[in-house]
Design brief:
This protein is mainly β and 98 residues long. The chain is built from one helix and five strands, in the order E-H-E-E-E-E. The chain has a domain of 67 residues: SHC Adaptor Protein (2-Layer Sandwich), CATH 3.30.505. Helix content is 10%, strand content 35%. It comes from Faecalibacillus faecis. This is Transposase.
């Protein structure tokens, strides 16, 4: 089963590096406590590690969470830097380059 992207309201990329051992509960706690956001509001949250070769994406749909992981064998994820906030919002049309 795949996520229905029509239901995704926002995409947030965190600027802080994340411990990739964290799973759903740990990542949801970051969204709630550090970013003061509602993890259940149909937003996609993207976390990266310090090496920028891994990302985790957290999304809540209907009655459960999705957790996606992507690891690059070569290269790094490149994110555009924006304002000084802890995260920034992407449009669905924007892409994360690898």
């Amino acid at each position: 089963m795949i996520i229905n992207t029509d239901e995704i309201k926002n995409i947030y990329v965190t600027k802080q590096f994340c411990d990739m051992r964290k799973q759903i509960d740990g990542l949801a706690l970051i969204v709630i406590s550090q970013f003061n956001m509602n993890v259940l509001d149909h937003s996609l949250f993207i976390f990266t590690n310090a090496s920028r070769n891994r990302i985790k994406m957290l999304y809540y749909e209907a009655n459960g969470f999705w957790l996606f992981t992507r690891r690059l064998e070569n290269g790094k994820f490149k994110f555009k830097r924006h304002e000084e906030s802890d995260s920034w919002k992407l449009n669905l049309e924007q892409k994360i380059q690898s």
